[in-house]
Amino acid sequence: MTSVKTATLPAFDGRALINGKRIGAASGQLFDCISPVDGRVLTQIARCAEADIDAAVQAARAAFDDRRWCGLPPAQRKRIMIRFADLLVQHADELALTETWDMGKPVKYAKAVDVNSAANCLRWYGEAVDKVYDEIAPTADTALALITRVPVGVVGVIVPWNYPMIMASWKIAPALAAGNSVVLKPSEKSPLTALRMADLALEAGIPAGVFNVVTGFGPEAGSPLALHMDVDCIAFTGSTRVGKQIHVMAGQSNLKRAWTELGGKSPNIVFADCPDLDKAVEAAVGSIFFNQGESCNAPSRLFVEASIKERFLEKALKLVPAYAPANPTLPDTIMGALVDQTQMNTVLRYIESGKAEGAKLIAGGEQALSETGGCYVQPTIFDGVTNSMTIAREEIFGPVLSVLSFTDTADVVRQANASVYGLQAGVWTSDLNKAHGVARALRAGTVHVNQYDEDDITVPFGGFKQSGVGRDKSLHAFDKYTETKTTWIRIDSPV
Question: Is residue 6 pLDDT above 80, yes or no?
Answer without folding.
Answer: no
